[in-house]
Amino acid sequence: MGEGLRLYGYWRSSAAYRVRIALNLKGLDYVTVPVHLARDGGEQHAADFRELNPQAQVPVLRDGHRVIRQSLAIIEYLDETHPDPPLLPASARERARVRALALAVACDIHPLNNLRVVQYLQAQFPAFAEQRDAWMRHWMALGFAGVEALLAEHPSTGEFCDGDSPGLADCVLIPQVYNARRFALDMAPYPTIVRIDAACRALAPFEAALPENQPDATPG
Amino acid sequence: MGEGLRLYGYWRSSAAYRVRIALNLKGLDYVTVPVHLARDGGEQHAADFRELNPQAQVPVLRDGHRVIRQSLAIIEYLDETHPDPPLLPASARERARVRALALAVACDIHPLNNLRVVQYLQAQFPAFAEQRDAWMRHWMALGFAGVEALLAEHPSTGEFCDGDSPGLADCVLIPQVYNARRFALDMAPYPTIVRIDAACRALAPFEAALPENQPDATPG
C-alpha cells in the first residue's frame, strides 16, 4: 500500500467531509479513494472494503499500514500525530467543551439522518417516504437548537466554535449545516451557527473539502 | 454548588451508565443527582435542567463550577484530569482504535435506540409499536457484528477491549450489552463481546454502576 495518507470516503458522506476538513486544516496531502455508497448495492459492502472496515462504513483513513476508523477517532488521531495547527484547545475543560459540541452533532443528529436509517424506515413503513424530509429536519432542528444554545451563551465561542481558529467542532458542524441546507431546514433560529458556518466556508480548507469539489462528485 | 463531582443522570440511561463505570474505574467519589426521563413529561425538559444542558439530555457532570456534557467528552475529561488508572492507551494508533470501538456503539447503535427516537416513531407510525423490538435489535445486531469483527481479529484485544485493563471502549460497550439483554438480542454471534462483558461484570466498578444499583432505580 506504500506510505502516505489515503482517505476512503464518499463525496456526500458528511462523516468523510469532516475528515477532509481536518486533513486540509492540517495541510496534509492525501489520496482520495472513492467508495460509492449507492452503486451496486453500495461498494462499502464489498468484501475488500469490509476487510478494511467490518462496519461497512466510510470514512476510513489509511496511514501507511495503519487503518483508522470512525471520523471523530480519525480527527483525534490526526491531531495527535500532526499537532500543528491544533484542532483541540489546550485545557481539559476547553477540550471537553469542543468534544461535546462535536458529539452533539455526531451522536445526536447525524446517526438519525444516515442513509441506512432512512432506507430501513422506507422499507418498513411505506408512509415514511412522505415524511422523510420532516424526519430529517426534526432531528436537525432539535440538535441545532442545543448546539446554538451552547455556542451563543459561551465566552469561548469566537469567530469559530472555539475561539478564533477553526477546530474539531467546526469540522463536524459545517458538514451538518451543508446537509441542513440540502433539506431546506430554516436556519433562522440558529444565528450563531449560521455566522460560524459563513466564517468557515470562507476558508480554503473548508472550500476544498466541499462535497461538490471531490473527484467522485456527481451532483444533480 | 460547592466542590466535588455531581453526576446528573438516570438509572437506565446507558450514556449515564458509561460515565458511572468510568468514575468507578477511577475510584472517584461523586454525588448522584437523578433526572427522571419519564416523570412529568421528562425532568430533562425542566427549565433548571435545560440551564445546565440546553440539549435536555443526561448525563451531565459538574466538577465544582465546571459543567461537562456528552458522555464520551466526560470520560475523556475524567481521563485527562485524573490520569490514573488510564482509560485510553498511550499511543495515538491504539487510542484511535479504542475511540473507534467506543464510537461504533455511541454513534452507530445507541442514538437509534434512544427513548426519544422510539417515542417519535411511535407517534408518527402507529405500526411502529409492533416493530419496536425488531427496530432495537436490528441496529444492535448490525453494530455488534462490526464491533465483534474489530475485537475478534485484533491482537490488542485482551481480557478487555484493549489489553488486560478495562478502559473507554468497555465503559461504552457494557451498557449497550445490558440494553441488548433487555431486548432479548441473541448474543451468540458475538462471542468476544460476550466474553468481555462477563469479564467486566465480574469487577466491582461495573457492578456498582449497574442501573438496578442506582438510588433512583425503580425496576419492574
From TrEMBL, chains A, B:
GO molecular function, one term: glutathione transferase activity
GO biological process assignments: glutathione metabolic process; L-phenylalanine catabolic process
UniProt EC number: 5.2.1.2
Pfam families tied to this protein: GST_N_3
Leading EC class: isomerase
Record carries keyword Isomerase: yes
Domain GST N-terminal: 3-86
PROSITE patterns per the UniProt record, alphabetical: GST_CTER, GST_NTER
Segments forming domain GST C-terminal: 91-219
Key word Zinc present: no
NCBIfam families: maiA
Family note: Belongs to the GST superfamily. Zeta family.
Protein name listed in UniProt: Maleylacetoacetate isomerase
Species assigned in the record: Chiayiivirga flava
Organism lineage: Bacteria, Pseudomonadati, Pseudomonadota, Gammaproteobacteria, Lysobacterales
